[in-house]
Amino acid sequence: MGELNKKVVIVGGGITGLAAAFYMQKEAREKGLPLDVLLVEATNRLGGKIQTIRRSGFIIERGPDSFLIRKKSFGILAEDLGIEKELVRNSTGQAYILLNKTLHPIPPGSVMGIPTQLGPFVTSGLFTLGGKLRAAGDLFLPRSGIKEDQSLGVFFRRRFGSEVVENLIEPLLSGIYAGDLDKLSLNSTFPQFKEVEEENRSLILGMKKTTPKKVPQKEGYGAKREGVFHTFRNGLETVVEALEEQLEKNSVMKNVRVNQIDKAGEKTVLTLNNGQTIEADAVIMTTAHEVVRKLFKPHGLLTELQDMPSTTVATVAMAFPEESIVQDREGTGFLVSRNSDYAITACTWTNRKWPTTTPDGKVLIRSYVGRSGDESIVSLSDSDIEQIVLTDLRKVMEIKEDPEFTIVSRWKEGMPQYVVGHRERLEAARVEIAKQFPNVKLAGASYEGVGLPDCINQGKAAMEEVLEALF
Hints:
15 helices, cytoplasm, alpha+beta, 24 strands, FAD/NAD(P)-binding domain, protoporphyrinogen ix oxidase, domain 3, FAD/NAD-bd_sf
């Protein structure tokens, strides 16, 4: 590393930090910038929540399992790394809502739970006649006129009533954040719905008008349709391995934690737990907001972030021989209504959705437990969680044997919650830190999107801000 080079430290080796480091080094090489980039990761591995287990021919994801293709940044990153040929699409199939003891197909034409086709909605068993009539009120209700932020629950209950929210919209939307719809911020999670109401008054009519028309598909199960998600043939960790391989030599420090952040003139000084001190010209913080808040607390900064909770969740992957599972439903999985008495919140029939994950003659089922207000199950032992999940699954399908193996993955405080007022708190935090630490940038799942492409976008945006400030 050159003595006269500008030094940038990226704290956190998840996908946000990796993307920032990769693209910053790429920019420096291509433009000949005098720049040294150092990525500091507290654990012994990179990738954050991206963790793939490859076992006995199975590809099992501990954290996220895919990304939306329409969000371009992940696909672009794959191309820039030269691994785009390893991408595979999901197989499509019917998805269900588990209400009480019955699997109900999600009505065709539902866009995040909002009906754009009335026929399937009217004939669905998910709702009573009263619930359907109340939801139809959206066609006649005026715009809310509310300008300030509000919860998703307040917004959607006003448009459709509680029954449709609890049995369809809530399972679909809260599954993304493992959150409580009555606390999650509309402006910070799904602002497009507010815009649709403002422009069209009715969400049903507005979503029907704005949703792209689908190309007609062949009828019947097994008909090929284009999946909207991508992953890698050998698991999502493929991208982490490629990034680590292509980052410049000696630019990554693992098993090293930042214990203290100070300022010396225009430099930001990082004190590490190994006793080393680093003076940086710029810092990109990509760790969870709880970590960032504690580091800046001695300076009286980022107190706003203490109002952002996080939810603890777990995934439970079970492998079975094919003959031990009897399923009378075709499809790729189901979500669970809060009105049902189940510990699991969702289930993916992974061997159907992602055929490349599972050897021939085997079945892979991935269930989810834990959500806002209901997290205690995650603290139980692996064997206890396995038995609880297995009991729930046996209420839905016939399972003749115990799994060949089970992998429980816990994510303690792993899901940041964008509660009402999130955008305002984030803006206040950034203004506050810019005054005392102008060359420190915040990026990652805690701030402007929890999806993998959202995190990549934030990493790239922080990288661009730093380069603009330094050169």
